[in-house]
User: What shape does this take?
Amino acid sequence: MNKINFDNKVIEMKNITKKFGDFTANENIDLTVHKGEIHALLGENGAGKTTLMNVLYGLYEPTSGEVFINGKKVDVTSPNIAIKSGIGMVHQHFMLVETFTVVENIILGMEETSNFGVIDIDKATKKVEELSKKYGLYVDPNAKVQDISVGMQQRVEILKALYRGADILILDEPTAVLTPQEIEEIIQIMKNLTEQGKTIIIITHKLKEIKQSADYCTIIRRGKKIDTVKVDDVTEEDLASMMVGREVSFKVDKKDPEIGDVVLEIDKLVVKDNRGLDIVKELSLKLNKGEILGIAGIDGNGQSELLEALTGLRDIESGKVILDGKDITNLSPKEIMESGMSHIPEDRQKRGLVLDFTVAENMILENYHKEPFSQRGRLNHRIISSFAKELIEKFDVRPQNDKQIAGALSGGNQQKVILAREISNDPEVLIAAQPTRGLDVGAIEYVHRFLVDQRDRGKAVLLISFELDEVMNLSDRIGVIFDGRIVDIMDAKKADEKTIGYLMAGGGAEDESE
Amino acid sequence: MNQNKFIETFISIALGLLVGALVLLISGFNPVEAYGIMFKGVFSNPKYIGWTIIRSTPLILTGISVAFAFRTGLFNIGAEGQFIIGSLVATLVGYFAKLPPIIHPIVAILAGCIAAGLWGGIAGFLKAKFGIHEVITTIMLNWTALYFSNFVVFWKPFKRLNRDASERILDTARINILGKWKASEAGKAFLKNNSFLKDFLNPPINYGFLIAILVAILVWYILKNTTLGYQLRAVGYNRDAAEYGGININRNLIVSMMIAGAISGLAGATQVLGVSRETAVLAAMEGYGFDGIAVALIASNNPIACIPAALLFGGLKYGGSKLQPTIGAPMEVINITIGVIVFFIAMPKLIQMITSLRGKKRGVKVEDTK
Ligand SMILES: Nc1ncnc2c1ncn2[C@@H]1O[C@H](COP(=O)(O)OP(=O)(O)OP(=O)(O)O)[C@@H](O)[C@H]1O
Ligand SMILES: [Mg+2]
Assistant: This one.
């Protein structure tokens, strides 16, 4: 437990209501946060967590309600006011300038200048280094943002907020894109920060992290506050059921697989990364009908490039991919799709969705040219709309409006749109990359059931995930990827976390080379 | 939301006129008087209205051309060159081809469109194949078009004697409304008693305006209701997602530039067949393409909105041209005033466009404008 000063309410939000048109995203929400506390916000996708924090940070103006910061009523009409009041926010999706260095990003808009308005980078670098030492936020000040890992980008975002004098930090799903190791680091960082008197509000869907780090947790369901609880007093199951309003099962129920013939064969695949170096190195793999094959591995070992090569988005240098007896090596994405492969991409905003399209338009992204969605080059809006409505209903996308712009959906609901589209293709092989990233536990349960269902119907699923728990729970077989190769494949029932962890870190590869 | 946009546009027009007034004031002219002259210069006589429409017609089309390309994520600076190619080819066909009326202009227009479409397609092809930015290639193609056109006009069988222009197109190729009838005895007699029509038909009123309106509707329809439009918009909004969805990016880039080129070419062709009847030797660009960029900006890249936007722009230009003879305002001051007005109208849109593009990159949710 942190040293919380209960007499010092740093944030008090009272009766906050935020409407978007007719839709109420926040309804009379109260939130109190004390100095030195880590306060978690928990809620389903689209519950209104990000919206509430955007109100606090001055990005949205509340329809009604009041905000008190350090006991004083503040009209937070812009982020500038929030920053002046000591609030810093790290968004769900990073906002860094890729071609700038770490220091340049941190000081952006607050540049230290010497005489004649020349930016004093050395002075700034020193200041950044001091901050980073003080809070244990290791960064390389002179590296370009495009060259550093996601975990470090996160630390840059936090430093950016601290550099602006933030005492209260809002972190919106900071761990969704991190590897397990990086998650442990960030939890440690949060503890360092609160020890030094900072206050943190964190949004996360991972109950484990809440248990590990937070002192208090406020649960929001469909825009309304359900309760604020002391984390030590509740179990993960309690949290989950408060959030969804029903019992949630964490274990994936599945019967034994009925494994059929080989449906996807990857033979000695070589793929280059963006810098032109081999990153997938003679990788071979066989996927059978009726199974879920999980690929475990640390980010950067060739997973993304493998996916892109399989789905036609990246060139294959050598090797072969055979789908259902047909050679699909280096075919176009469309041809591959039509051969029976679908793909849930790992980056939903980059690949998965056209954010400016409506939900309905996104639902037909791969099939817009087919009947009944279009005839002789003309779109049939009526059929598209009713098709989209059906999927929205079936996959519980909220709000249930097929004319909604996809960019206005909450992160989790965006993911549901992609899932709905891909699964409705009824593919022979479904490639699922981080399919539950950013989803709430209720939705995760749902996605897992869909993937298992797919396999029970005799289809094949290739699951790629950085969440070891997910891979272990869901897969029938587990392959471990390291340095562009599958170093081992094992029966999921016999797999244990320790062995996999050892292989993921390169343990197996060293043995082999000896 | 639409109402909001409308009010926004209205406010920016008012603001633009205000700052334009300031420019006039600084230059020593009475803005009230000047605006009065401009207003009268457009509306006081049916003839003037006719001229305004004629001046606006090519701008509608080049505006649509730019707007269309922009919806696909391409910045078509090349409308100018495509316009030149369209006029040149339409003049060639209009002069050399011996065809019956009705067929003749259709063939000339189609030829102009196709040539300009291919011309625009070059930029699309270079982008798709070698990744060369279309801004650079279209600017270069503009100059290439200009000099190429001059070169062809100087070709002996085509050049008119003692004139820095080509031969005039044949009468069979003209697209003027009631052109023959106007000049006939019966027409003259009729118009004598009907002064409104007489004035309105005095300028070379032609089918170009109707064609432009049809094209606006057609383009709007294509973008909204066809699979082609769907693809083009997907590529414009998010290339990565479009690629992932199986859409052929390169083909769409080329198709988009070809269509944009064809529309600008159509502007050139109708201008020749309806108004100028010839291709003159050009010392510099005439600016139809560049004005099209401003029109597209004012219209927020909506093809239908390009019609009022171009009328506004054309009206300002035509009205502005009356200031020189009346109050002796130099053309520079007039152009600055018009420029300032357009700048203020287009500015908020430009900012919106830039911020929405940046927001998209960073994946920020844009708050609904209700
Ligand atoms: N700009 C907007 N315009 C319209 N509706 C919006 C806008 N932003 C959010 N919403 C809606 O408000 C609701 C709450 O969204 P919010 O982003 O706050 O959810 P969240 O709790 O952060 O979910 P997630 O865990 O999936 O990120 C959603 O239904 C969303 O569609
Ligand atoms: Mg969110």
